[in-house]
Amino acid sequence: METIRRAIEEVGGVDGVLGFSQGGAAAAMVASLLEDGREDAFSSSTSTSPSETSFTYPTSWSKMQKDLPQPPLKFAISYSGFYAPDATYAPFYEPKIKTRFLHVIGSLDSVVEEERSQGLVERCEDKVKVVHPGGHFVPVGKEYAGVLVGFLRDVLGREDKEEEEGVEDMNVPF
């Protein structure tokens, strides 16, 4: 998490995060850490047994939020992402993640159990879930690029929707 924090600082802050598989799980954690009031969830979290170690909210993230300043994210995107079910990770998900979240999940994913992918979806408040008919990969067809572009346009508040260009017209290396 410190490597991610340093990367955010180096670029002067970010609007959103995107991750695949473990990166999707990390994207959810980053979105969570940057939400208003999340620090309270970490301080009120208690372990259920002596063998469990609760996380504390990283002070370096608090410092970054104030110094940059880095506001809560506008969006997070997860491809084949999942949540960490162990109770020690609960402060990342309780209360639910409020950041706008796009979840793209493969219906034939044999690497990440459906329960864990769906678990991440359920731990987000403001979410869009898209299921593609494949496995553990990022789908690259036009329809899935269109879903991504549409989500980002919606999140980033593009007002000129009448003049939207199609994915084929965009100068983006998909």
Please give a structural write-up:
- This protein is α/β, with parallel strands linked by helices and 174 residues long.
- 37% of the residues lie in helices and 13% in strands.
- The chain is built from seven helices and four strands; from the N terminus they run H-E-H-H-H-E-H-E-H-E-H.
- The protein has helices spanning 2-10, 22-33, 38-44, 59-67, 90-93, 114-122, 142-155; strands at residues 16-20, 75-79, 101-106, 127-132.
- A four-stranded parallel sheet has the order 1-2-3-4, with helices on both faces.
- The protein starts with a helix and ends in a 19-residue tail after the last helix.
Find the structural class using helix and strand composition.
alpha/beta
**Uncertain residue ranges:** none
* Share of helix, binned: 25-40%
Largest sheet: 4 strands, parallel
Q: How many DSSP helices?
A: 7
N-C termini distance: 28 Å
Fraction of residues in β-strands: 5-15%
Number-wise, the strands total 4
Report the radius of gyration as a whole number of Å.
17 Å
The secondary-structure element order is HEHHHEHEHEH
As laid out across the biggest beta sheet, the strand order is: 1-2-3-4
**Shape call:** globular
Mean pLDDT: 90
Question: What is the fold's blueprint, element by element?
Answer:
Layout: H1 2-10, E1 16-20, H2 22-33, H3 38-44, H4 59-67, E2 75-79, H5 90-93, E3 101-106, H6 114-122, E4 127-132, H7 142-155
Parallel strand pairs: 1-2, 2-3, 3-4
